């Protein structure tokens, strides 16, 4: 810990406090000033409880906007000055490394072809820079689909043939998916963590250049008190219009957001769960995650484990860094709004679980801020919705029940309610400015750093419009998520869709019917009883009314390709494709050509080498799960009928898993099938 204290000492405490005072001081000051103005514009005849409620909702909504705004301002300023994050020792890129590093890719029912193609590209890139000997790659599978399980083993076998000579590619599948991804990584640390100094965590869609990986290891070695270094990932491989919009927004606005966070977080940064390097000792010593008391959604295993792991590592005295300077870090985006919302549902539950952790003892104050920001990122939607509902209810009340200007007592002077219309408009304009202006700051940095970018300005303008239309839809999604969680409904752990099929009318109608109905009803009611609010509400109601066509249109690859042909939402990585992306695509094509037509048990019956590999791997994967004797007996009968009578092998998921955990049956079945075929010949 002495080394850690030396590292922190290199960063003056006055600088840390100064930066945080600027960001949060300006956030508080702007929120106080806006709130004072807001209190003055509320109609004077409103009930006291109404005034208090509207003020509280306004403070929560505006403070969230102000934090984003001021953080982006400082991020923009730092990027313009091209200043590295202070407090971390930056070594030369030619610095040799000694550490052993494991590259971990946890997977769950993902496409094995894409997964192993990305890992092969990473391995080859490490070989190209001469550092493949310092790394091993682990695919940590929690796959529950038996056919995907066997396909993973097949692709692992094929990918090993493409690997550099001195870099090992390991594969392990857990029989029990305890604690999901966090439990998967914990299992690795318990079994193999002592062999490595660092581990780089990837998602199934992650891709990182060898140069970036090497740089992260160099920085970890040069900064012995560092527990985590997070490299901001950039979205790639987007084809649908929705994904291309998100990809463009991340590429243009993402850098100033990351730089803004790094500006005030410094060595107390967060961890985003992937595309990051972690010191194994720090993780093992600090990151034994608790099982929260009670039932899901608030109890049980922690879903958003990354925030908690960062907080525990920081509590253990290690620093955590978000470094916008690290390029060459990539991920993919969900292809549709519905897929995006499905992922958001898991994140929402995970972040709301942090309410239980927020007051844990000995956490660093900035870690508590991270938890609060994560919680508010989802509570802000229902807060915004409540703010709109209360404001609309007040306006409708005035329209349906006009105020009484002359009281029953005789008086020459009526009681005129005072309402500052211009003040309300001014607050609205300021709020919109604080939301939109950082996007243009991001565009300035984007244009300065990337010469010859086509269609950037028009893409930004269109993105602002489309985001405004989608914002109320996402507000309704997230508000429902929060409501479901607060009423005790937990989320299932499902595989993320990474395909390009698009959203059908049936799916769009089922998910957006209530959004459409709400938009139409609100528009009609406002038009009848609160005409003065009609145009102000239209940006919200029109997005809800058009939610079905918006969801369908943005999900289409054809829409995305049309936008690309007309220079909308282009990013530099599409004009000049990075070598690592080209390499990953080439290996994906190679592995696709090797994909077997047969799946699961059928493949093991025809491929004796894979059959033997599967049998050898079973002890490595750990003890078999509990298997129903009834399922095993039914599976055996179907297997015998398939071999002896050519009956189609129609196994349920449970039956196929039962066979996969009985190696003697698998090997005997493969021999019987070969004998049967030879006799037929």
Radius of gyration: 28 Å
Whole-Å distance between the termini? 72 Å
Number of helices: 25
Secondary structure tally: strands: 10
Percentage of residues in DSSP E strands: 5-15%
Sheet with the most strands, sense and barrel status:
7 strands, mixed
User: Which runs of at least 5 residues are low in confidence (pLDDT < 50)?
Assistant: 1-9
Spatial strand sequence of the major β-sheet: 3-2-1-4-8-6-9
Q: What is the share of helical residues?
A: 55-70%
The 3D shape can be described as: globular
Task: Explain what this protein looks like in three dimensions.
By secondary structure, the protein is an alpha/beta fold. Helix content is 63%, strand content 6%. The protein contains 25 helices and ten strands. The chain has helices at residues 2-9, 13-41, 48-81, 112-128, 146-160, 180-192, 210-222, 241-265, 280-286, 305-315, 337-357, 365-400, 421-449, 456-486, 505-529, 534-545, 547-555, 557-565, 572-575, 579-593, 600-606, 608-621, 629-645, 653-660, 663-680, and strands spanning 101-107, 135-141, 168-173, 198-201, 207-208, 226-230, 234-235, 276-279, 319-322, 329-331. The strands form two sheets. Strands 3-2-1-4-8-6-9 form a seven-stranded mixed sheet, with helices on both faces. A three-stranded mixed sheet has the order 5-10-7. Helix 4 links the parallel strand 1 (101-107) and strand 2. Residues 1-9 have low confidence and may be disordered.
């Amino acid at each position: 810990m002495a080394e850690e204290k030396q590292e922190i000492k290199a960063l003056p405490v006055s600088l840390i406090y100064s930066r945080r005072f600027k960001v949060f001081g300006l956030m508080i000051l702007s929120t106080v000033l806006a709130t004072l103005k807001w209190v003055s514009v509320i109609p004077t005849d409103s009930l006291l409880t109404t005034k208090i409620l509207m003020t509280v909702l306004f403070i929560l909504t505006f403070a969230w906007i102000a934090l984003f705004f001021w953080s982006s301002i400082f991020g923009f300023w730092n990027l313009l000055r091209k200043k590295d994050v202070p407090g971390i020792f930056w070594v030369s890129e030619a610095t040799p490394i000694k550490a052993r590093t494991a590259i971990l890719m946890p997977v769950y029912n993902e496409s094995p072809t894409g997964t192993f193609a990305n890992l092969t590209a990473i391995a080859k890139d490490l070989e190209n820079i001469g550092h493949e000997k310092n790394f091993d790659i682990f695919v940590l599978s929690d796959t529950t689909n038996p056919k995907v399980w066997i396909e993973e083993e097949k692709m692992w076998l094929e990918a090993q043939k493409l690997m550099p000579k001195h870099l090992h590619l390991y594969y392990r599948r857990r029989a029990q998916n305890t604690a999901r991804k966090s439990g998967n990584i914990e299992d690795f640390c318990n079994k193999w963590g002592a062999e490595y100094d660092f581990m780089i965590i990837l998602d199934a869609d992650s891709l990182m250049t060898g140069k970036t990986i090497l740089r992260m290891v160099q920085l970890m070695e040069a900064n012995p008190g560092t527990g985590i270094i997070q490299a901001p990932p950039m979205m790639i491989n987007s084809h649908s219009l929705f994904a291309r919009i998100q990809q463009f927004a991340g590429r243009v606005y993402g850098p100033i957001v990351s730089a803004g966070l790094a500006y005030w977080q410094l060595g107390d940064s967060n961890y985003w769960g992937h595309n990051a390097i972690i010191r194994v000792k720090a993780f093992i010593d600090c990151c034994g995650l608790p099982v929260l008391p009670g039932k899901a959604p608030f109890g049980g295993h922690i879903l958003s484990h990354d925030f908690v792991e960062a907080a525990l590592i920081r509590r253990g005295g290690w620093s955590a860094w978000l470094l916008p300077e690290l390029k060459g870090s990539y991920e993919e985006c969900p292809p549709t709004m519905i897929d995006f919302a499905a992922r958001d549902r898991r994140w929402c539950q995970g972040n709301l679980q942090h309410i239980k952790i927020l007051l844990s003892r000995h956490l660093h104050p900035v870690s508590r801020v991270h938890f609060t920001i994560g919680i508010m990122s989802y509570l802000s939607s229902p807060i915004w919705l409540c703010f709109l509902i209360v404001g609309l209810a007040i306006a409708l009340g005035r329209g349906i029940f006009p105020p009484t200007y002359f009281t029953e007592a005789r008086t020459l002077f009526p009681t005129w309610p005072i309402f500052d219309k211009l003040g309300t408009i001014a607050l609205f304009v300021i709020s919109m400015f604080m939301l939109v202006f950082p996007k243009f700051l991001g565009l300035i940095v984007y244009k300065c750093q990337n010469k010859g970018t086509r269609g950037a300005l028009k893409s930004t303008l269109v993105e602002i419009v489309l985001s405004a239309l989608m914002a109320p839809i996402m507000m309704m999604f997230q508000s429902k998520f929060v409501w479901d969680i607060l009423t005790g409904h937990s989320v299932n752990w499902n595989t993320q869709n990474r395909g390009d099929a698009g959203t059908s009318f049936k799916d769009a109608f089922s998910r957006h019917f209530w959004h459409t109905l709400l938009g139409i009803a609100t528009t009609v009611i406002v038009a009848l009883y609160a005409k003065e609010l009609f145009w102000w509400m239209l940006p919200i109601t029109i997005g809800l009314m058009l939610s079905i066509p918006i969801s369908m249109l943005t999900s289409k690859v054809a829409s995305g390709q049309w936008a690309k042909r007309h220079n909308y939402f282009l990013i530099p990585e599409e004009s000049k494709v990075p070598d690592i992306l080209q390499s990953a695509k080439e290996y994906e094509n190679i592995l696709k050509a090797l994909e077997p037509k047969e799946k699961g048990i059928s493949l093991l019956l025809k491929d004796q080498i894979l059959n033997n590999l599967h049998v050898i791997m079973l002890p490595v994967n750990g003890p078999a799960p509990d298997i129903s004797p009834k399922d095993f007996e039914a599976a055996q009968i179907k297997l015998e009928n398939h071999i002896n009578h050519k009956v189609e092998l129609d196994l349920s998921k449970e039956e196929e898993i039962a066979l996969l955990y009985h190696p003697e049956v698998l090997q005997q079945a493969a021999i019987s099938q070969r004998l049967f075929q030879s006799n037929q010949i």
